[in-house]
């Protein structure tokens, strides 16, 4: 590889060499700033010349050197005028490097930076989405306040761009503009609101990021998008996943009631954590308590679970904290396995994960107990990892495993890493206090350590023993005596102070030793550490009170020494003690109680985990790691007592579909009217929405393709009930599916109307069908339903039957009878399953080209074999009918779409006289029926073709399929894709069209 | 955006200081006030999340590259990092998260380089750490190594990469396949061609992957030889105690793939015994549901080398330990020498040869020198770091390799009380110690017949023998 770099070096070698030369001279001759300055000037002159040359290679070389300077942190700002001229360079690499330069220096040279703005404005209209996106990126990265209005405009336009990539960049630009000018907040929130509705997985992560940045408190913007976000989550790129999960965690804490039972102690039945069969347990839980989880709450928990398997540690941690903060306690157990897996990763990841585990293990030991051994320390671990592991081991210690742990600790105490050995001793102390069975064992073990050769170990042992003895004020005279002897040898101040305190506290138990110790200490008082001095004063005071005969003089002496000490703490303490214990005329009432004050029973110290107080921070956050509130930290709210209205998350159209009553019908009419009038007004206004219309079609195709070929997310989420076989979640899912299927019908019909509208106005090429708002809400409902398309299939059959009954009743209101649509077909059937995105782009083009003047019809590249159910054999009394779109020009009329119908007789009798009757077609629609079929033999099948002119809309053609005895209402609804005509078009024409449509 | 400024009082914790009686409360005057960075700048909204700046620092403390995604942050912010580095005993112990008055520094240590990122507001630390590692991975991928020299030689490409990887501090394109379409990695041929034709190594089309649902794969891949190779690599993590019994052992495995297939192949890989895999993490290309329901890995692969899955073998299964170590290390009291005797032999190796054996020992500080004789291989002792490395090679059961001899200690120093642990490395070809076996690989979506291959290797992971 070195040869690579060598070769690369050669290419731009000259430049770097001179630069290095410059550096050398500038460091060698510190003779004066003048020399340095002149050489810099000279070099920059030469760069300027290169930039002004005609040759791209020279310019490129110059730019590369300049970028090298920026990378080293050198100032290259004076080249600004020369560089900015090249912003319009044709060479894409020069252009990119100029962008790098601009972003770095524009803030400093605002006036000159304005020169480049027009270039970006032009580029924002470029047909190439890459160029549009990067222009927006750079434009928004230039921190020049003057261009705020231009940025705002650009963002608004980009947010409605055809390309999701550009929209993603728009979401990023929102944050940049916001930090440049917070005044724009309101306008930006509007854009965020719009982008939140975007269903592209590319946009989701970025827009949520912008939301978190600009308006994290506007939780109301999330309601309508909550389900969509949950469903998209698996497919969003990993960084976006982290952001979305954190946001949804906060959301859930404000919108749902607590799933934690009141009696959920710290350790609720530990067994249940490891029950593999979560669901069963859940069922029993359900029976016990009235709490039922909001289906949306469940949706979030369920949809994040697969992400525990992510390769990205940040995603795993994000899911873990989500489970920790919002899932029922019995379900949080599944995260421990994944967190333990992360411990195999590099030290930085280990560090963060261990910290979080430490916090969790305090509250719920059970979660990590089975993984106890994963926290065993290796001698090669860095110290910070070792101490964290030790912390966790301590938290996990209990009666059952303490003996194993103590054996393990014994190894650690001997470690060469003394800091770690000391930490282990602290740990042993904590175990001893927490688990009373082993207190004595630990104490004797620690006493053994007092004879250790290493002073740090001894000192730490002393400190810990002191704490342990304080907890059991029983007879430990021997140990105290032993420690008193240690005073001669040990030098660590903390340890000395501890021993002195211990002797002072127990001075009546060791009446002979204590005064002697005081004598020795009085001798060395001046050379002791401050910490020790304070304890000498304490010891003196205590002895003065209990044994004043022997120690009065000694104490007075020490107090005198203390009076003139350099440290004011010690002088203070001395004054205080003297006033308190030495009786004189001024001493107040307090001195009577001096003995009580000094020799009161002190509460035993609680040896607590340093992670004890971290649990009020959200896990996985920077604040948690620092144990201090970081700037911009968003507090996780407590569960609400009563859940806010859950219906806010329903997407509007669902509401309408749900309350399906005559009143509902009337309600429905209103928007329809408005819809028409609105579109008239906007007949020839902006062209963006026809784009979005066509795009929504092609995008849904994309999603569809994904569903077909790779059974990705949409199926994932819906097949969940089977795999999890959750009783409750199953039914809930079905409910959701049902709701969705209704939405679907509604959404499509709306679409249909739009299409219809489009056809009417299609003579003017920039025809306008609806406002952008309208179309985006359409697409939203569509995405909702698509994401659960699979579950819809399950319920489809039942639905249909029910609907057919209603169908018969609804005779003439078919235009508005939105509920009548059979959600039979998936929105768009696209060619080849694994369709490359370029093909999709082609299709987008096709869609646009319908309004173009030059149309040359070509043969379809691919005809899907997919058939749709027209009449199920169960509802057709044995007659089954399927239809498909052969994608051939219709022989009955050039505006008609040809439809093939295959009829099957599944009965054991002949079916006679199959024909079509009672066509109920929306205005303008026409249909060419097939000739009546005389008879169909049992098990026989026949294929007939017919033509329907759908008027370029997706409205349903309803009619009756009749046999000799029966009539069945059926309907055909064309997916948008089947209405299109395959067209061949030159690239130029295509570009032209595309440009035309912005 | 009104932020609550919080002041946190924290009493500096000096060990054992806290409970020395009532009066110690007075000495708590040393309480230090710690405040969050940017406390005063908090009034202004829009601090900008995520990564603000990145500094690359080499071992000797030179900042050799800086990149800012927002306003420029002065290099002097790194002083806090250097301070922390000084405090830490060694590079491994530099805390990954450092709080400074106005910023937070999150750093990683990779290949003798520090990647220090500057953060201003709350952000999940793992997010930044994971991203920084991804940056280092990308450098590794592009330049063959992630070293100071490689980065300095390719500073323009590094800059272009960083520009694409982060926008406004938020990750934009981190998939190597996408990046390679945007910015071509340097090769000898390309730089020669570029210098002649003046063309660039910056792609001018939007990577198709960026827009599709399979962002990890680029479109239009073509190979004359279509190949798919899978390496099943398992590592044994173990702690063996003095007596030779296993304290802790588990198997961590990965399947690395090298896929060179044209078009859009859809692969499914199945195992003979998938139940062995206890905990698995997947490359994003794998269809999770398929795994859940059928235990089959179904995916459209990225092009080239990538890690398909990593897994842990359930701890219920007993882990076979392929080697045993006999050791006797002793230091004599009051004399400046000790004895060192280590023999290594095969155990439960399933009839395969154990090769590439290396023993590394961090000797106690008092050890001055070692005079050893190996029956096989060679050894080195570094008197500065006190690391003994014995390169054993292959273990032949007939003649077990051993290393014997004397240890010279610093005279007068007390004898070390703990014997050092032995870290052992080895490798067994053609064996997955867990018994995991690939059953078959099927390809859909393309017509050609690819060449398929699976290789198994078992290695020692963190394999430590306490003595």
TrEMBL record, chain A:
A single Gene Ontology CC annotation of this entry is: AP-3 adaptor complex
Specify whether Flavoprotein is a keyword of the entry.
no
Organism, by scientific name, is Equus caballus
Q: Which UniProt keywords apply?
A: Membrane, Protein transport, Transport
Give GO BP annotations, semicolon-separated: intracellular protein transport; vesicle-mediated transport
Region entry Disordered, spans: 1-27, 268-291, 664-808
Its name, as the record gives it, is AP-3 complex subunit beta
Q: Name one Pfam family in it.
A: Adaptin_N
- Per its UniProt entry, which superkingdom is the organism in? Eukaryota
Q: What family is reported?
A: Belongs to the adaptor complexes large subunit family.
Automatic annotation (TrEMBL), chain B:
Q: How does it sit in the membrane?
A: Peripheral membrane protein
Top-level taxon of the source organism? Eukaryota
GO molecular function, a single term: small GTPase binding
BP-aspect Gene Ontology terms: anterograde synaptic vesicle transport; endocytosis; intracellular protein transport; postsynaptic neurotransmitter receptor internalization
What the entry lists under InterPro entries is as follows:
Adaptor_comp_med_subunit, AP2_Mu_C_sf, AP_mu_sigma_su, Clathrin_mu, Clathrin_mu_CS, Longin-like_dom_sf, MHD
Q: Which Pfam families match?
A: Adap_comp_sub, Clat_adaptor_s
Checking PROSITE patterns in the record gives: CLAT_ADAPTOR_M_1, CLAT_ADAPTOR_M_2, MHD
What's in the keyword line of the UniProt record? Answer: Cytoplasmic vesicle, Golgi apparatus, Membrane, Protein transport, Transport
Location of the MHD domain = 225-466
Residue intervals passing through the bilayer: none
GO terms under cellular component = axon cytoplasm; clathrin adaptor complex; cytoplasmic vesicle; cytoplasmic vesicle membrane; Golgi apparatus; postsynaptic recycling endosome
Give compartment(s). Answer: Golgi apparatus; Cytoplasmic vesicle membrane
Q: What PANTHER family does this protein's entry cite? A: AP COMPLEX SUBUNIT MU (PTHR10529)
Its family remark reads: Belongs to the adaptor complexes medium subunit family.
Say what the protein does.
Answer: Part of the AP-3 complex, an adaptor-related complex which is not clathrin-associated. The complex is associated with the Golgi region as well as more peripheral structures. It facilitates the budding of vesicles from the Golgi membrane and may be directly involved in trafficking to lysosomes.
Please report the name of this protein according to its UniProt entry. Answer: AP-3 complex subunit mu-1
Task: State the organism of origin.
Answer: Equus caballus
């Amino acid at each position: 590889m070195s040869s690579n770099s060598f070769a690369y070096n050669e290419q731009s070698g000259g430049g770097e060499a001179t630069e290095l030369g410059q550096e050398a001279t500038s460091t060698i001759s510190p003779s004066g700033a003048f020399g340095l300055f002149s050489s810099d000037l000279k070099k920059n002159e030469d760069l300027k010349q290169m930039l002004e040359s005609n040759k791209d290679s020279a310019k490129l070389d110059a730019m590369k050197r300049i970028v090298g300077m920026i990378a080293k942190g050198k100032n290259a700002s004076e080249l600004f005028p020369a560089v900015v001229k090249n912003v319009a360079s044709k060479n894409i690499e020069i252009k990119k490097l100029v962008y790098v330069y601009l972003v770095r220096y524009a803030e400093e040279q605002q006036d000159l930076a304005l020169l480049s703005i027009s270039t970006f404005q032009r580029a924002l209209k470029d047909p190439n989405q890459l160029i549009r996106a990067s222009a927006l990126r750079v434009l928004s990265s230039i921190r020049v306040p003057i261009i705020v209005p231009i940025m705002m405009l650009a963002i608004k336009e980009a947010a409605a761009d055809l390309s999701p990539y550009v929209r993603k960049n728009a979401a990023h630009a929102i944050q940049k503009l916001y930090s440049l000018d917070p005044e724009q907040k309101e306008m930006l929130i509007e854009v965020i609101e719009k982008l939140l509705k975007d269903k592209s997985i590319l946009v989701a992560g970025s827009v949520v990021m912008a939301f978190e940045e600009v308006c994290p408190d506007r939780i109301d913007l999330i309601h309508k998008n909550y389900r969509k976000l949950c469903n998209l989550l698996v497919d969003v790129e990993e960084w976006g996943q982290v952001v979305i999960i954190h946001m949804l965690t906060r959301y859930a804490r404000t919108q749902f009631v607590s799933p934690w039972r009141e009696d959920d102690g710290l350790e609720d039945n530990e067994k249940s954590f490891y029950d593999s069969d979560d669901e069963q347990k859940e069922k029993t839980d359900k029976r016990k308590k009235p709490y039922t989880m909001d289906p949306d709450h469940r949706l979030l928990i369920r949809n994040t679970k697969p992400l525990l398997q992510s390769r990205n540690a940040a995603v795993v941690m994000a899911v873990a904290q989500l489970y920790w903060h919002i899932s029922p306690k019995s379900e949080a157990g599944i995260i421990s396995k994944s967190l333990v897996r992360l411990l195999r990763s590099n030290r930085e990841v280990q560090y963060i994960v261990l910290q979080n585990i430490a916090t969790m293990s305090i509250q719920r030991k059970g979660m990590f107990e089975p993984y106890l051994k994963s926290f065993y320390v290796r001698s090669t671990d860095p110290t910070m990892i070792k101490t964290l592991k030790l912390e966790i081991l301590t938290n996990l210690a209990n009666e059952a495993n303490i003996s194993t742990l103590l054996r393990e600790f014994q190894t650690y105490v001997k470690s060469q890493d003394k800091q770690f050995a000391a930490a282990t001793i602290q740990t042993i102390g904590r175990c001893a206090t927490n688990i009373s069975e082993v207190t004595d064992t630990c104490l004797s073990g620690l006493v053994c350590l007092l004879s250790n050769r290493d002073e740090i170990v001894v000192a730490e042992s002393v400190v810990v023993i002191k704490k342990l003895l304080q907890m059991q004020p029983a007879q430990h005279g021997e140990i105290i005596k032993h420690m008193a002897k240690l005073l001669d040898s040990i030098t660590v101040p903390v340890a000395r102070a501890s021993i002195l305190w211990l002797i002072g506290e127990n001075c009546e138990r060791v009446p002979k030793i204590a005064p002697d110790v005081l004598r020795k200490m009085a001798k060395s008082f001046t050379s002791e550490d401050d910490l020790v001095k304070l304890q000498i004063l304490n010891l003196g005071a205590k002895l003065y009170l209990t044994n004043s005969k022997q120690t009065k003089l000694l104490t007075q002496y020490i107090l005198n020494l203390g009076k003139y000490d350099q440290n004011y703490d010690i002088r203070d303490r001395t004054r205080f003690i003297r006033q308190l214990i030495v009786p004189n005329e001024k001493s107040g009432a307090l001195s009577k109680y001096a003995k009580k004050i000094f020799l009161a029973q002190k509460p035993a110290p609680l040896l607590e985990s340093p992670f004890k107080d971290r649990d009020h921070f959200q896990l996985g956050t920077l604040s948690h790691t620092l144990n201090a509130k970081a700037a911009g930290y968003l507090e996780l709210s407590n569960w609400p007592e009563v859940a806010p209205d859950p219906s806010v998350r329903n997407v509007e159209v669902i509401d309408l579909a749900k309350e399906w009553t005559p009143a509902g019908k009337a309600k429905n009419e209103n928007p329809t009217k408005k819809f028409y009038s609105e579109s008239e007004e906007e007949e020839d206004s902006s062209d963006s929405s026809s784009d979005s219309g066509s795009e929504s079609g092609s995008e849904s195709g994309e999603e569809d393709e994904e569903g077909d070929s790779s059974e990705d997310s949409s199926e994932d989420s819906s097949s969940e009930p089977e795999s999890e076989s959750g009783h409750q979640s199953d039914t809930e899912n079905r409910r959701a599916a049902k709701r969705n299927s209704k939405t679907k019908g509604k959404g499509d019909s709306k679409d249909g109307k739009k299409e219809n509208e489009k056809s009417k106005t299609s003579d003017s090429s920039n025809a306008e069908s609806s406002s952008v708002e309208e179309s985006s809400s359409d697409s939203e409902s569509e995405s909702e339903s698509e994401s659960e398309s699979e579950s819809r299939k399950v319920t489809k059959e039942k639905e249909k039957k029910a609907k057919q009954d209603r169908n018969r009743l609804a005779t003439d209101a078919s235009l508005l009878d939105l509920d009548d649509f059979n959600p039979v077909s998936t929105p768009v059937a696209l060619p080849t399953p694994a369709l490359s995105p370029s093909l999709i782009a082609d299709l987008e083009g096709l869609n646009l080209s319908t309004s173009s003047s030059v149309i040359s019809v070509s043969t379809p590249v691919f005809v899907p074999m997919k058939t749709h159910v027209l009449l199920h054999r169960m509802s057709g009394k044995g007659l089954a009918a399927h239809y498909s779109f052969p994608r051939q020009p219709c022989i009955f009329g050039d505006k008609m779409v040809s439809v093939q119908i295959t009829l099957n007789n599944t009965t054991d009798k002949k079916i006679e006289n199959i024909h079509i009757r009672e066509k109920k077609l929306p205005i303008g629609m026409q249909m060419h029926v097939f000739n009546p079929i005389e008879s169909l033999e049992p098990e026989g099948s026949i294929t007939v073709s017919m033509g329907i002119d759908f008027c370029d809309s997706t409205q349903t053609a309803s009619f009756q399929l009749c046999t000799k005895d029966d009539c069945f209402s059926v309907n055909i609804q064309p997916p948008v894709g089947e209405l299109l005509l395959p067209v061949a078009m030159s690239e130029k024409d295509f570009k032209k069209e595309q440009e035309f449509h912005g | 955006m009104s932020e609550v400024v919080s002041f946190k009082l924290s009493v500096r914790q000096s060990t054992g200081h806290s409970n020395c009686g009532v009066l110690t409360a007075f000495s708590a005057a040393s309480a230090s006030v710690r405040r969050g960075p940017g406390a005063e700048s908090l009034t202004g909204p829009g601090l900008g999340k995520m990564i603000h700046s990145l500094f690359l620092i080499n071992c000797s403390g030179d900042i050799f590259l800086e990149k800012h995604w927002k306003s420029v942050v002065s290099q002097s912010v790194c002083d806090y990092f250097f301070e922390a580095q000084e405090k830490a005993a060694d590079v491994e112990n530099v805390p990954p998260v450092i709080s400074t008055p106005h910023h937070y520094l999150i750093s990683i240590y990779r290949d003798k380089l520090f990647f220090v990122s500057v953060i201003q507001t709350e952000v999940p630390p793992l997010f930044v750490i994971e991203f920084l590692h991804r940056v280092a991975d990308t450098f590794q991928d592009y330049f063959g190594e992630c070293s100071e020299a490689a980065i300095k030689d390719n500073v323009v490409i590094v800059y272009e990469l960083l520009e694409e990887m982060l926008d406004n501090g938020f990750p934009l394109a981190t998939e190597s396949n996408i990046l390679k379409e945007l910015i071509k990695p340097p090769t000898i041929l390309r730089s020669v061609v570029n210098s002649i034709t003046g063309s660039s190594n910056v792609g001018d089309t939007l990577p198709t992957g960026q827009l599709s649902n399979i962002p990890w794969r680029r479109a239009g891949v073509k190979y004359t030889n279509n190949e798919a190779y899978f390496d099943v690599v398992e590592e044994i993590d173990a702690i063996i105690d003095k007596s030779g019994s296993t304290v802790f052992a588990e198997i961590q495995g990965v399947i690395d793939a090298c896929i060179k297939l044209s078009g859009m192949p859809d692969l499914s890989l199945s195992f003979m015994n998938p139940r062995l895999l206890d905990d698995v993490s997947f490359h994003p290309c794998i269809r999770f549901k398929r795994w859940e329901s059928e235990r089959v890995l179904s995916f459209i692969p990225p092009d080239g080398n990538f890690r398909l899955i990593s897994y842990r073998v359930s701890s219920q299964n007993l882990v076979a330990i392929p080697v045993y170590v006999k050791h006797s290390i002793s230091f004599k009291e009051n004399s400046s020498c000790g004895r060192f005797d280590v023999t290594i032999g095969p155990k439960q190796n399933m009839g395969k040869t154990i090769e590439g054996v290396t023993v590394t020992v961090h000797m106690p500080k008092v050890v001055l020198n070692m005079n050893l004789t190996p029956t096989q291989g060679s050894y080195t002792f570094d008197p500065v770091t006190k690391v003994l490395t014995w390169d054993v090679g292959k273990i032949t059961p007939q003649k077990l390799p051993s290393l014997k001899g004397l240890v010279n200690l610093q005279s007068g120093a007390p004898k070390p009380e703990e014997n050092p642990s032995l870290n052992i490395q080895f490798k067994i070809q053609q064996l997955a110690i867990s018994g995991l076996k690939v059953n078959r690989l099927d390809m859909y979506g393309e017509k050609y017949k690819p060449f398929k291959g699976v290789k198994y290797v078992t290695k020692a992971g963190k394999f430590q023998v306490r003595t």
